[in-house]
TrEMBL record:
Keywords: Ion transport, Membrane, Transmembrane, Transmembrane helix, Transport, Zinc, Zinc transport. Residues 23-212 form the Cation efflux protein transmembrane domain. This is Cobalt-zinc-cadmium efflux system protein. It is found in: Membrane. InterPro entries: Cation_efflux, Cation_efflux_TM, Cation_efflux_TMD_sf, CDF/SLC30A. It is a multi-pass membrane protein. It comes from Tepidamorphus gemmatus. The keyword Ligase does not apply. The chain crosses the membrane at residues 21-41, 47-68, 88-107, 119-143, 155-181, 187-204. GO terms for molecular function: zinc ion transmembrane transporter activity.
Length: 320
């Protein structure tokens, strides 16, 4: 039994992303305390909501930074793929945390509509503008990194939510200064919370799809079969194609290859792997070689949980 363990060059940006996450975490943590104090002093829900989000961001960015360090650890006997899926798990947890925080903001906003509070719009505007500048800096730091990485996407989502929160607080402060209409503060907080929930749902869907072993987008079994084709010498059929992903960068494939008697089985397997790597950037493919007369037995056995002790397989198979 063997397997192809070639991996693509997906690690070159991990160190850069880790550094960017660290910088963003420090920027976020540095302003979080000031904004929380400002929200309490001014009575602004928009500022308090953004401060609460920044507190969650500080923790989430720290976990995201740690996830990259954990993922870089080499495989072990117990974790043969290493910790490559850990960042995906953190991204999913981030999405859930964001949705819970947004729900809290919605509840608090409902209370503010029922019982308006006095808001000091002048100091609120100063704090909100400062927060906007900090959030823009953190967003730019992250946006120039690996934006396709789920963990970086989760971090960007957190910071983007903070940025929207700062913009909402600025607008609310201006409206209150100009007209004294305080309901604008919880109203804009609701708008920001709904935008955050929509983005968090997308992140949870994408990361959850990987955690549930879903086929990566564009890599359905039909696509795999089409890329392999029907013109490989000695290959009669391809069966039991399974596609999933270790993380957002590393798709994996297992399949059975029915080989003609006397054909170059290893050559056919090598060509299967070459095509998948060249056309679909799949660098980890495990192929089980099945003789033609063994294929029906293999298909029948697919639905059984196990073979009674002592029963022998009707035909041998090999993995490559």
């Amino acid at each position: 039994m063997g397997a192809d363990h070639h991996h693509g060059q997906h690690d070159h940006g991990s160190g850069s992303s880790r550094r960017r996450l660290g910088i963003a975490a420090l920027l976020t943590a540095g302003f979080m305390v000031a904004e929380a104090i400002g929200g309490i002093v001014t009575g602004s829900l928009a500022l308090l909501a953004d401060a609460a989000h920044m507190m969650t961001d500080t923790v989430s960015l720290g976990f995201a930074w740690w996830a990259f360090r954990i993922a870089a650890n080499p495989p072990t006997a117990e974790r043969t793929f290493g910790n490559r899926r850990f960042p995906v798990l953190i991204a999913f947890a981030n999405a859930i945390a964001i949705m819970m925080l947004a729900a809290f903001i919605l509840l608090e906003a409902a209370q503010r509509f029922a019982e308006p509070v006095e808001i000091l719009a002048g100091p609120m505007l100063v704090v909100a503008v400062t927060g906007l500048l900090v959030n823009i800096a953190a967003f730019l730091v992250l946006a120039t990194g690996e934006r396709g990485n789920l963990n970086v996407r989760g971090a960007l989502l957190h910071v983007a939510g903070d940025l929207l929160g700062s913009l909402a607080a600025i607008l609310a402060a201006i409206v209150i200064l100009a007209s004294g209409w305080t309901p604008i503060d919880p109203l804009l907080s609701v708008l920001v919370a709904l935008l955050i929930i929509a983005a968090a749902v997308r992140l949870a869907r994408d990361s959850g799809h990987i955690l549930l072993e879903g086929a990566p987008r564009g890599l359905a079994p039909q696509k795999i079969r089409a890329v392999i084709g029907e013109d490989i010498a000695g290959l009669r059929a391809v069966r039991h194609i399974h596609v999933w992903a270790l993380d957002q960068d590393r798709p994996l494939v297992t399949l059975d290859a029915e080989i003609e008697p006397g054909a170059d089985a290893l050559g056919a397997v090598a060509e299967i792997k070459r095509r998948l790597e060249a056309d679909l950037d799949i660098h980890h493919t495990t192929v089980e070689i099945v003789a033609p007369d063994a294929a029906p037995a293999a298909v029948a056995a697919c639905g059984r949980q196990g073979r009674p002790q002592g029963q022998q397989a009707a035909n041998p198979t090999r993995r490559a």
